[in-house]
Please model this.
Amino acid sequence: MANGARDLEAARPGQEPAQSQSIWDRIATSKEFQDLMATKKTFIVPAFIFFLVYYFALPVLVGYAPQFMDTKIGKVNLAYLFALSQFFVAWIIAGLYVKAANNFDRLAKDILDKADKGDK
Model:
């Protein structure tokens, strides 16, 4: 049996695999599910692009603007502060995702509840 079929059976015990498959097909094609995927994409894609640009800005700036990155701020240079800031930016993005994921989970639960009520 394929892993996908086992996962469907585990997700809804007591239902036949063919019936579970049709439930998941209906959910996947529903407007609510499509809206959920679009909502997730509107957060994940910009966050990923922002972090990728921010992450690669350090080596690019060190390579192409070494005098700028050597600027002293207190006792450390800008390059070290920028590198340290990447940790904080990653934590901030993770925190924002956790907050957004609570909404995603609520929407997913509503979709599953609606699918369960439709089957009974």
